[in-house]
From TrEMBL:
Name assigned to this protein: Tyrosine recombinase XerC
Function: Site-specific tyrosine recombinase, which acts by catalyzing the cutting and rejoining of the recombining DNA molecules. The XerC-XerD complex is essential to convert dimers of the bacterial chromosome into monomers to permit their segregation at cell division. It also contributes to the segregational stability of plasmids.
The keyword Cytoplasm belongs to this UniProt entry's keyword annotation: yes
Entry keyword set: Cell cycle, Cell division, Chromosome partition, Cytoplasm, DNA integration, DNA recombination, DNA-binding
Subunit (UniProt): Forms a cyclic heterotetrameric complex composed of two molecules of XerC and two molecules of XerD.
Matches recorded under CDD domains: INT_XerDC_C (cd00798)
Domain Core-binding (CB): 5-90
Active-site residue numbers: R151, K175, H248, R251, H274, Y283 (o-(3'-phospho-dna)-tyrosine intermediate)
Keyword Cell division: yes
Length: 302
């Protein structure tokens, strides 16, 4: 009888499958592997191997996570990771049947996103004129995030060639390699011009082994701006204006302000790069919530 493959070998092959065949991002692969290492430790502690995976074993592992205070979103993420693994193991013949479809995903409690007021964003973006290359980059990053509603990872992946000044748009490669074209407003274009002409050249230095001459935003040592640094840019710029928000807060704010200004839901869906209108629907809740508040304050019969 053939000895079962070590759990580490299973994860290595699974990681190659995720990135190679399914094209999952490095971030997704890392997240799945972190969760699944916990699962494999649980199996080993109870005398089991990946070949023994079934619904009761997975539920017992998830129950342990819930008992330790794991949130619904964490449990849902773990269920997604396990489903991907069991589907793969079934395909490879390690599991006779795939228990994944019988694993229920906990219902998500979707909270309304934190949204900055239009006046707050305007004040933050009208602060003292940036002077240093880093300040120019921070200003351009915040302006572009709010102007386009792009995700911070999408912003970091932008190249100079993605900015089309003839149409005042930017080409964005989003989730699932879906490409979309997003309009860019005049203030953001001005901030980008200032960065490209006055800031970017100062940070452009030879980066050994890195071909980042095409990147729109540069970070340390002339390399493409990373997601972590972009987040820090946003926090630093908004803190200077007395605000506490994050890149995704700017995305939420941009979508909500568009709807408040009269944009239809379908246009906002395309603007954000959502594959389903259900993902965009939450922003109408924000607008309705504000409308209700205004109604209660202003209507004589509220």
């Amino acid at each position: 009888m053939t000895a079962p493959e070590p759990a580490s070998g299973v994860l290595e092959r699974f990681a190659a499958y995720l990135s190679g065949e399914l094209g999952r991002s490095p971030h997704t692969v890392r997240g799945y592997l972190a969760d699944l290492r916990s699962l494999l430790i649980h199996l080993d502690e109870h005398g089991h191997t990946p070949a023994d995976l079934d619904v009761p074993l997975v539920r017992a592992w998830l129950s342990t996570a819930r008992a330790r205070g794991a949130s619904r979103s964490t449990v849902a993420r773990r269920v997604a990771a396990v489903r991907a693994l069991t589907r793969y193991l079934h395909r490879e013949g390690v599991l006779a049947t795939d228990p994944g479809p019988r694993l229920a995903t906990p219902a998500q409690q979707r909270s309304l996103p934190a949204v900055l007021q239009e006046e707050q964003v305007g004040a933050a973006l009208s602060a003292a004129a940036p002077e240093s290359p880093v300040e120019l980059r921070r200003h351009a990053v915040v302006e572009l995030l709010y102007a386009t509603g792009v995700r911070v990872a999408e912003l970091c992946a932008l190249d100079l060639a993605d900015l089309d000044r003839s149409r005042d748009t930017v080409r964005v490669l989003g989730k699932g390699d879906r490409e979309r074209t997003v309009p860019v407003g005049a203030p953001a274009l001005e901030a980008l011009d200032a960065w490209i002409t006055g800031g970017r050249p100062e940070l452009t230095v030879p980066a050994t082994g890195a071909n980042n001459g095409s990147a729109l935003f540069l970070g340390a040592r002339g390399r493409r701006l990373g997601v972590r640094q972009a987040r820090e840019d946003v926090h630093a710029h908004l803190r200077a204006a007395g605000l506490d928000s994050a890149p995704h807060g700017l995305r939420h704010s941009a979508a909500t302000h568009l709807l408040n200004g009269g944009a239809d839901l379908r246009s906002v869906q395309e603007f954000l790069g959502h594959s389903s209108p259900r993902s965009t629907q939450i922003y109408t809740h924000v607008s309705v919530d504000r409308l209700r508040s205004a109604y209660q304050q202003a209507h004589p019969r509220a």
